[in-house]
Fold this sequence. Notes:
alpha/beta, Rossmann fold, 54% helix, Ester_Hydrolysis_Enzymes, SGNH_hydro, phosphatidylcholine lysophospholipase activity, SGNH_hydro_sf, Acyl-CoA thioesterase-1
Amino acid sequence: MFIPSFGYGRRSFLVNAPARFFVAVLVAAALWAARAHADGVKSRTAAIRIVAIGDSLTAGLGLREQDTFTVRLDAALRARGHNVTVVNAGVSGDTTAGGRTRLAWTIAGSGAEKTDAVILELGANDGLRGLDPGATFANLDDILTRLGRRKIPVLLTGMLAPPNLGRDYARQFREIYIRLAQKHDVVFYPFFLAGVAADPKLNQNDAKHPNADGVKVIVRRILPAVEKLLKRVSGRGES
């Protein structure tokens, strides 16, 4: 008796098995490509997270939150079209030794909380206390070395020592930052308080910390250096 075959027999299944396998591979590949594309889009659109590690100048001592350096810098960068988040990791009274101690947990994080770049603003309190420039250099050197190992781009901001400590100390202190910038090939902004220091109109009553107008000047002047830092973040992502 003739029994018609509708393609569901054992022979038909074996013949079509390679085709089914090929289709399954194509589907899996398409799904993988779609997921990879989505992850790539997400990584390109995620905000660049800049962590500002510093002392009271970064923390914003005596200022309203909206007038602090990190908030003002965040707003200025976004106004120029940069998708960024600037994190305030300033601790009032901190020295380079303190920053060195807390570095690991300050930059810890993953995913959306990862650290893409660092602005390193430390040393003012070392200078005010007349600490050994060699120790200040060693602390900052260690911080930059550890950030370098993690391939985190850095903007190093310099600081000047008070003039009452003498010319020799002032020279040694200034050279700390120059030497470190050259050694670690980081973006360098020579003096964080440039255009603000010693100007009564731009400082609080203590003559040490910038007021709201002073912070505006700092942000405006440092902005090109921060944008240079962002280029290094983008370059790292392309490599």
